[in-house]
Structures are given as C-alpha cells and as structure tokens.
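Hey, quick one: can you model this chain's 3D structure?
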Amino acid sequence: MKRKKVPIRKLLLSALFALALPVQAADVRTVTFMVNGKPLVIPLDQNPVITYSNDALHITTNESSTPIDVPVSEITAFEFKGAPSKADANADNAVNAADIVELVNAIMGTPSDRFEQAAADVNGDGVVNTADIVEIVNMLIKQ
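Sure thing. Here's the predicted structure for all 143 residues.
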C-alpha cells in the first residue's frame, strides 16, 4: 500500500477543523492564526465562517462580508483562546496580586486593555467592587 505524503500544514488545518466543534462548546473567545509571523485574531462572537478551497482559508464574519483569504502555506500556527478563569482579572492565566491591582484600577475607573469584567466579578454579584478584591485575597491566602 502506497502512502500519500500530506504536508504538515494540511494536517494542522484538518486538526483545527476536527477540534472546532468540541472547542466551541468550551468558553472559547478567539482563534488566532499566525500568518507570516503576524497574528490574525478571529473573535468567535462575530460568528466567523471559515471555508477551505484552493489551498487557502476564506474567513468571513458578521462584521465583514468581504472574506479574508489566507494561504495555508503562510499559516505558521494557530491557537484557541478562552475566557480567563474566575479572579484572573488581567487574563494572564494566573491569579495573583496583579489581578488585585487590575480590580483596583477598574474600580477607580481606569481598567487596562486586558481587564476581564466577567473574571473580575469573583463573587458573581454582577458588580466589580471591593468584595471581589476580598475574594481574591482569600483565594491567595489559601494557596
């Protein structure tokens, strides 16, 4: 039996589509493709439609009817990014003092670009306030 050589990029692309359905069930927010060393971030809340033909991905979203065409040969990597966990207010994949600083800044009206409202509302009362800071401090003390 003769084996057909399949380029690694095509295998990765196949893996992407195989993973897409179960990953969407998780709290995934973006898919990022590295294209010639530059990130192409596709927010999933824009309901992207990704099709494949002529060795290229064709990506459309509800924000733009003009497709973005990305040759598969130019894709060097991709990643799924989900929502940060509770208390990870700055979305750095760690709960630490930096998250407390992020909450203080948000409460004072100057949140950073990385601020994650849903993660910052640690006690789930719908408001980011000092009670959430207390929750994070208690989490850190228990570590």
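One thing worth noting: The first helix runs from residue 8 to 25.
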